[in-house]
C-alpha cells in the first residue's frame, strides 16, 4: 500500500505564500516517482484557494482540526461537514499544539474522530509523549493511554506518532525509538481493534526532513510521515515525498 506524506502548514500562509507553495509542490509532483499519497493541510483560510491547485496534481486536501458537533453555537469553530463541503478528505486531530493551546483532552479528540468519519473525512489522530514523560521512562505508557482514550470504537483512520519533544526541534527521534514505539502502537491497535488494527496506518512526525526521511520511512510499522516546517516549500518537502516507499 502507498505511504502517505502529510504536510501540516500550521498557522502559516497568507494568500500569496499559500498559492506559491501549492503551485510549486503541484508542479514538482509531476516528477515524483515514489507513488506516495500526498496530503496538504493548510490553515482553514487557504483551503478553498489551494484545494483545486492541489487536486489537479493528485494531492489530497486536509484540515488541521474540526469541531465534534455537526453544527450549532460554537463561535469560531468549523464542522467536519463544512470541510467535506470544500473538498477536504483528511483532518488532523489531537495535534500536540491543539492539546497544549486549547486544552484538548483524549475524550474530545475521540469525539472529533467520530464526527470526522461521519462526515466522510479520514481522521489523522496524533499521539506522542512529552519531554517529561520521556525522561521519566513513561513514553509507552503515555502513548498507550492516548491511544485508548483518543481512538473511537471501529476507528478506521490514521495514527500519527509525534513525540512532542521532537516537533519543531530540528531533531527527529532515533530510528530505534521510532521502530520501538511504532511496534508498540501496532500492538496496542491490534489489542484494541483486532485484525483491523493490523492495517491502520501509523505515521511518524517530528522534525522529518530531506536528510532523515530515507532512514525513517522504510521502518516496518511506519506508513508515512506527518511533516510540519519542511512542508512549507517544495524544495524541502519534495525530498521527503521522494523518499516514501
Ligand atoms: C508537526 O507539526 O506535526 C510536525 C511534525 O512539525 P515539524 O515537522 O516541524 O517537527
Automatic annotation (TrEMBL):
It comes from Novacetimonas maltaceti. Substrate binds at residues 8-10, 168, 207. Transmembrane segments: none annotated. It catalyses: D-glyceraldehyde 3-phosphate = dihydroxyacetone phosphate; L-erythrulose 1-phosphate = D-erythrulose 4-phosphate. This is Triosephosphate isomerase. The keyword Cytoplasm applies. It is an enzyme of class 5 (isomerase). The lineage of its organism: Bacteria, Pseudomonadati, Pseudomonadota, Alphaproteobacteria, Acetobacterales. Involved in the gluconeogenesis. Catalyzes stereospecifically the conversion of dihydroxyacetone phosphate (DHAP) to D-glyceraldehyde-3-phosphate (G3P). GO terms for biological process: gluconeogenesis; glyceraldehyde-3-phosphate biosynthetic process; glycerol catabolic process; glycolytic process. NCBIfam families: tim.
Amino acid at each position: 500500500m502507498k505511504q502517505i506524506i502529510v504536510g501540516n502548514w500550521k498557522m502559516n500562509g497568507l494568500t500569496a505564500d499559500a498559492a506559491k507553495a501549492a503551485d510549486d509542490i503541484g508542479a514538482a509532483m509531476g516528477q515524483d516517482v515514489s507513488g506516495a499519497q500526498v496530503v496538504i493541510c493548510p490553515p482553514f483560510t487557504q483551503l478553498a484557494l489551494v484545494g483545486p491547485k492541489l487536486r489537479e496534481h493528485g494531492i489530497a486536501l486536509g484540515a488541521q482540526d474540526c469541531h465534534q458537533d455537526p453544527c450549532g453555537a460554537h463561535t469560531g469553530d468549523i464542522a467536519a461537514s463544512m470541510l467535506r463541503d470544500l473538498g477536504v478528505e483528511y483532518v488532523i486531530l489531537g495535534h500536540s499544539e491543539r492539546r497544549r493551546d486549547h486544552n484538548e483532552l483524549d475524550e474530545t479528540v475521540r469525539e472529533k474522530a467520530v464526527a470526522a468519519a461521519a462526515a466522510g473525512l479520514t481522521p489523522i489522530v496524533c499521539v506522542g509523549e512529552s519531554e517529561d514523560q520521556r525522561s521519566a521512562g513513561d513514553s509507552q505508557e503515555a502513548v498507550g493511554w492516548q491511544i485508548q482514550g483518543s481512538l473511537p470504537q471501529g476507528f478506521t483512520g490514521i495514527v500519527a506518532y509525534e513525540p512532542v519533544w521532537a516537533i519543531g526541534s530540528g531533531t527527529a527521534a532515533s530510528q530505534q525509538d521510532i521502530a520501538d514505539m511504532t511496534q508498540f502502537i501496532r500492538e496496542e491497535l491490534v489489542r484494541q481493534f483486532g485484525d483491523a488494527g493490523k492495517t491502520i496506518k501509523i505515521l511518524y512526525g517530528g522534525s522529518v526532513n530531506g536528510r532523515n526521511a530515507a532512514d525513517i520511512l522504510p521502518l516496518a510499522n511506519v506508513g508515512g510521515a506527518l511533516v510540519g516546517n519542511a512542508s512549507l516549500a517544495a524544495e524541502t518537502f519534495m525530498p521527503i515525498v521522494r523518499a516514501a516507499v
